[in-house]
Amino acid sequence: MDPTGYIQQESRVPATSLDSIKQNIAFRVREARLQKRLSQEALALEANVNRSYASALETGRANPSIGLLHRIATALDLEVIDLLRP
User: What is the DSSP string of 1-31?
Assistant: First the structure.
């Protein structure tokens, strides 16, 4: 237990798996954005995110929430699952 009384658990997903997932999302977002002929700025405006965050998302540096993935997917006329597929 930690000092707050909560039991600490180790992540069961290796860091390399998380990096792989983020890279896959990055690829899917960029691919869909280019197919729609949108700039990063246009995508950012549609999804109500900062352009630099859109860039970080496309390079795998961002760790997006489900809500953010939903906004990105909606802006790209996709479902969230489309961004998560391997």
Answer: --TTSPPP---SS-HHHHHHHHHHHHHHHHH
How far from 14 is each of 18, 21, 39, 74, CA to CA, in Å?
A: 7, 11, 33, 29
The pLDDT of residue 6 is 46
**pLDDT reported for residue 2:** 46
Q: Domain containing 67 — which CATH number?
A: 1.10.260.40
Domain that residue 62 falls in:
17-84
Q: Is 50 left (phi over 0), alpha (psi -120 to 50) or beta?
A: beta
5 in any annotated domain? no
Token pair listed for 63: 């760790």
For residues 39-64, give the mean pLDDT: 96
Please tell me whether the overall predicted TM-score, pTM, comes out greater than 0.85 for this model: no
- Whether 73 is covered by a domain: the verdict is yes
